[in-house]
Amino acid sequence: MINIGINQAHREEIAAGLNQLLADSYSLYLKTHSFHWNVTGPMFTSLHLLFEQQYTELALAVDLIAERVRALGARALGSYSAYAKLTEIHEDQGVTKAETMIRELLSDQEVVIRNARALYPLVSQANDEATADLLTQRIQIHEKNAWMLRSLLSE
């Protein structure tokens, strides 16, 4: 029995939200890594490095998210099919234009931000400070990533 000051119903709901974040984060990791491998054009070097920085950070993040799910007493999802059912992030469909990659990753970063932020009311209600801290950190990183990607666009 888990007795950490958060009732079971709240733990289960928060874990479900974190599994959503895990699915989004892992899907974004895969897509960003694919774009890192496949980017071409005049911005190759800068995008290749930026994408590497972003997917490397995501690789570490998925572990933190999954471990928080486990600390709440739930099972962390760990399969492509489970992630595909939950995430709103679309797989790389063979995109070759750098600007399209930037736009897709920007949109995907914003998906992660919105889904992480949507979990806050429940986390606050449950007084789950540890998950709130994790969400705050994730939102800050994804907002910075979105800003960097947005800055590359000539709009």
UniProtKB/TrEMBL annotation:
Record's GO cellular component terms: DnaA-Dps complex
CDD domains cross-referenced by the UniProt entry: DPS
Any Gene Ontology biological process: negative regulation of DNA-templated DNA replication initiation
GO molecular function: DNA binding; ferric iron binding; oxidoreductase activity, acting on metal ions
PROSITE patterns reported in the protein's UniProt record: DPS_1, DPS_2
Family annotation (InterPro entries): DPS_DNA-bd, DPS_DNA-bd_CS, Ferritin-like, Ferritin-like_SF, Ferritin_DPS_dom
Gene3D superfamilies: 1.20.1260.10
Superkingdom of origin: Bacteria
Domain Ferritin/DPS: from-to ranges: 16-154
Record-linked SUPFAM superfamilies: Ferritin-like
UniProt record similarity statement: Belongs to the Dps family.
Name of protein: DNA-binding ferritin-like protein (Oxidative damage protectant) DpsA
Organism: Shewanella oneidensis (strain ATCC 700550 / JCM 31522 / CIP 106686 / LMG 19005 / NCIMB 14063 / MR-1)
Lineage: Bacteria, Pseudomonadati, Pseudomonadota, Gammaproteobacteria, Alteromonadales
